[in-house]
Amino acid sequence: MSSEKVSYDEASNPRGVTPPQTSSMAESGADLAHEKKIIRKVDIRLLPILVAVYSVAVVDRTNMGSAAIAGMMADLKLKIGSRYSIALLVFFIPYFIFELPSNLVLRRVGPAIWLSSIAFSWGVVTIGMGFIKDWRILVFCRVLLGFFESRFLPGCVYLISSWYVRYEVQQRLAGFYLLTSIINGFSSILAYGLMQMNGIQGLAGWRWILIIEGVITVAIALLAYIFVVDFPDKLFQRRKPFLTASEVEIIKSRINRDRDDSQADPITWGIVAHHLSDWKLWVYALIFMSAAVPPYALAYFLPIILKGMGYSTGMSQILSALPYIPAVVVGFTLAWWADKSRLRAPFIALGALLVIAGLSMTAFSSHHSVRYFGVFVCLAGAQNNVPAVLAYQANNIRMNSKRSVGTALQIGFGAIGGVFASTVFREKDAPGYRNGLWATIGTQFLALLLLACMTVYFKKKNRQHKEGTLDKLLENHSEFTYTI
Question: Which Pfam families does the entry link to (predicted)?
Fold first, then answer.
């Protein structure tokens, strides 16, 4: 390693990417304590509002399970054929299609306007769902919900990964996702409370679940317009910044030392096509698809599975929330450990094994207590893997344009995971849904296989980089190496 690379702080310069010297602050070396203070300012301003908006997005997307056992299934005749599964599935079709175009617009319009406007839109749709009388209108509303929500998560992941160096990003993505998850978990208790409004203004309890949760979404969307921040290189262009010019330069110099892409490169449809030709993006997307299946399956079907065990509607709602508490603790602990060790694949593999073990207990035990404990084990692995897989890709790509394309593709495949979860849990398999549980286990074996292949490939390329025998640069940079 050259003496120039040794001079950079190791925490800010993992893997030794040598930057262009962008500022006098970078040349002299920023004080580490001051740097950490700036990062905390970014954390406080960037993450809470995104967590708040994504939380209501997930609640609005997955409240079908709570509404179903609160009377929607009977009122809209969703038990006929596969109507309930169809209503779940159609959400993911526009959710997949419109991921990529949204990220291309995000930088031009600005995160505050773009993210808040789409949150407002899906909030209005959720309110409207509380007044529908026909299951076909429900299907149409779910399509609209998928259209609007498709633009939010890839934008959030793209924005978050643009502010941090590679070995800080999993903790931030985990905090973003896991706080969202625990809020979503306790949304079933909120739904139980809202069910008690049954009969007020002549509306059923399930309708109040949708209406009140939609109103909350609209209110948070208005706050998002005020508080969502821009990209580091755009911070002074569109609204009043929350950092000083020198603090922004420190952020940008850290990113350049880490991966040399603080400035956005141009993005055109030709560049999009070029990035999509990288086979690794499709592997990351397939791994994320596998990681997305268990959380969707549990969100949509856990209350129904628990009710099938003999629990009452209210107890099913409460028991659906409890597994999220230890899952968040496990997920964030593993995220901290992953960033500390600068490893990704071993922690994703651990998460997949936990899902396999947990679902096996839920599928095959004859004791309800063991089956329920399996949900805890499964959810701990599932909640770890979603941010871990996002970080796995974020650590192994460069350039803003590729980050935009890769994030949209990856989360789009998460929608395919949602389609999978919606279809393999069939009404005729209720209340145990053993075939759906088996299919979900199969996706974890797929993730383990893909991880093994990527690990072998990354180790080979890193060894060639060290020996100077590469046929072409990794991620178009002479100092870049892959994160295992």
Answer: MFS_1 (PF07690)
| Domain 31-245+262-465 -> CATH class | mainly alpha
Distance CA 66, CA 80 (A): 18
CA dist 249 to 21, 154, 255, 266, 429, Å? 11, 25, 10, 21, 57
The pLDDT confidence band at residue 262, using thresholds 50, 70 and 90, is low
Query: Rounded to two decimals, what is the model's pTM?
Result: 0.76
Length of the chain: 484
Q: What is the pLDDT of residues 280-301, one digit of tens each?
A: 999 999 999 999 999 888 877 7
Signed CA dihedral, 168, 173, 176, 182: sign only: negative
Q: Residue 440's closest CA among 311, 305, 256?
A: 305
pLDDT at 404: 83
Question: What is the identity of the amino acid at 337?
Answer: W
DSSP 397: -
> Angle 279-308/169-195 helices, nearest 10 degrees?
30
- Nearest-angstrom CA–CA distance, 137 and 160: 36
CA distance linking residue 330 with residue 417, whole number of Å:
23
Q: What single-letter DSSP state applies at residue 477?
A: B
Cα(398)–Cα(259) distance, rounded to whole angstroms?
7
Q: What is the spatial distance between Cα 425 and Cα 100, in angstroms, rounded to a whole number?
A: 28
Q: Which structure tokens are listed for 325?
A: 């508490």
- Of 102, 87, 216, 92, which Cα lies nearest the Cα of 153? 102
* Domains of the chain by residue range: 31-245+262-465
- Other Cβ atoms less than 10 A from the Cβ of 29: the count is 13
**Taking the chain, what is the end-to-end CA distance rounded to the nearest angstrom?**
20
Angle at 292 between CA 191 and CA 15, to 5 degrees: 125
As a whole number of angstroms, the distance between CA 278 and CA 272 comes to: 10
Q: Compute the distance between CA of residue 346 and CA of residue 374 in angstroms, rounded to an integer.
A: 22
Classify residue 228 by its DSSP letter: -
Please tell me the distance from the alpha carbon of residue 353 to that of residue 359, in angstroms, as a whole number.
10
Q: Are 228 and 4 in contact (CB under 8 A)?
A: no
pLDDT tens for 356-412 read: 999 999 888 878 888 899 999 999 999 899 999 998 998 898 887 888 888 889 988
CA distances from 230 to 125, 155, 357 (A): 27, 11, 41
User: What local confidence, expressed as pLDDT, does residue 471 receive?
Assistant: 86
pLDDT value of position 427: 64
The structure tokens listed for 290 are 């596998």
- SS3 (DSSP) at 22: coil
Q: Let me know how many helices (H) and strands (E) the chain has, helices first.
A: 22, 0
Peptide bond into 294 cis (omega under 30): no
In 186-271, where do the E strands start and end?
A: none
